[in-house]
Structure formats: C-alpha cells, structure tokens
C-alpha cells in the first residue's frame, strides 16, 4: 500500500486525477466511484478537464435504501450533480435503492460488476474504517448486499440531511469481495476524524472489525491523505 501525503483536498484531487489519467491512457474503461465529501474536488478536476469519458463506464459503490434518484440526498442525485451531468459517460451504474426486491437487485448488481470488471476504484473511508457501506464486522467474502448502517455512520452522514432521523437506516452496497476485484484502488482521506481509521487500515491487524484493513492484501492500492489523516501513522 503506497501512502501519498498531500497538503489538502485540492492537491489530493490533482494527484488522484493524474493517477486516473494514467490508468485511462493504459486502457482503463470502467471506474468504480464513491460519493461523500471526500471525492467532490476529484470529480471537479474531472469536470474541468478535457478528458473524454464517452467510452467509459462507471459502477458506484452504494445507494441508500428507499431513496429514488430524484431525491437530493440520494447517491444517484449526488453523482449526477457532481459528475455525470457535466461529463457524460457511456453508461453509469448505481444500485437501485427503491428496488422492490433488494436481494434480487444485489444479485443483478454483482452481474453488472462481473460484466464490467473495475479497472480503477475510488474509495473514501468511514471513521469506523468502512469502505463502501461495509461496516465493521462485515465478512470479507461479501459481495453486493443490503446493509444496516451503524449509529456512527448515521451520525456522520446526518450533516447531509435536515435531521438525523431522516438518514436512511439501510443501504445497498458493493461488498468487500467486489471491491477487492478492482485492478487498482485509490483511497482518499482528509481530516483528523479519519486518522484512527487510516492507522488501522495501513498498520493494523487485518480484521473484519476494520474493513479497510483488507486493502493491505490488494496488490495496487494508493492512499492519498492529508497530514491530519496520516497523523497517527508511525
Ligand atoms: C460513499 C461511501 C462511503 C464514504 C465514507 C466517507 O459512497 O462508500 O464509504 O466514502 O463514508 O465519507 P465522506 O467522504 O463523506 O467522509
């Protein structure tokens, strides 16, 4: 796992963009994408660039259960706003949080991932070490599945909602096993609140209690983080 320390989110976004450009120059066709605060500036760099994505496919990590794409808090809405409306791709996939049969939706999403192997995966990390919405305790063998969000995640994400009660309690997420199939992974983390998780991920024991620690076993992971997020690394 390679750790690149940057001054701030803007510098991190530029480093991430250069890695993406290099991957696309080398033939990457499918991007795995994340939502949340962390990748916003990275998406802005893509939007500002003249890189052509019309032949690219994206597969997102997750979506809240119960929200449809028109809902401003949904990850569909987030992705359209920050990236897809400005930079058209060939196709964009996200799990359908409104599916009447969520188990069937999870299976169908695994099929999409199998048909579109991820060349380049962008990740953020939760304060509790989650990647995607794979909370501590999730089996490393899990593929796309329905998740009960943990209290700390609900609290952390409440900032995007009017009230904490409005945060959905469930999500549908790519599993750890799905994420680990990506050819290359770039994980970004900014701020003190991520420092414990970054330490556990990079230097801790590989354990399902710290989902991101599995990335130590992946052959091509780059971590882009600011000083505050790497502060606890030895
Ligand atoms: C989002 C996702 C999550 C976030 C994580 C960090 O699609 O899968 O794992 O990356 O919760 O969120 P932020 O970036 O808002 O701190």
UniProtKB/TrEMBL annotation:
NCBIfam families: nagB. Residues 21-220 form the Glucosamine/galactosamine-6-phosphate isomerase domain. Pathway: Amino-sugar metabolism; N-acetylneuraminate degradation; D-fructose 6-phosphate from N-acetylneuraminate: step 5/5. Catalyzes the reversible isomerization-deamination of glucosamine 6-phosphate (GlcN6P) to form fructose 6-phosphate (Fru6P) and ammonium ion. The gene is nagB. The keyword Chloroplast does not apply. It is an enzyme of class 3 (hydrolase). It comes from Lactococcus ileimucosae. It catalyses: alpha-D-glucosamine 6-phosphate + H2O = beta-D-fructose 6-phosphate + NH4(+). Its EC number is 3.5.99.6. SUPFAM superfamilies: NagB/RpiA/CoA transferase-like. The active site is at 62 (proton acceptor), 128 (for ring-opening step), 130 (proton acceptor), 135 (for ring-opening step). This is Glucosamine-6-phosphate deaminase. One of its GO terms (molecular function) is glucosamine-6-phosphate deaminase activity. Belongs to the glucosamine/galactosamine-6-phosphate isomerase family. NagB subfamily. InterPro entries: Glc/Gal-6P_isomerase (IPR006148), Glucosamine6P_isomerase (IPR004547), Glucosamine6P_isomerase_CS (IPR018321), NagB/RpiA_transferase-like (IPR037171).
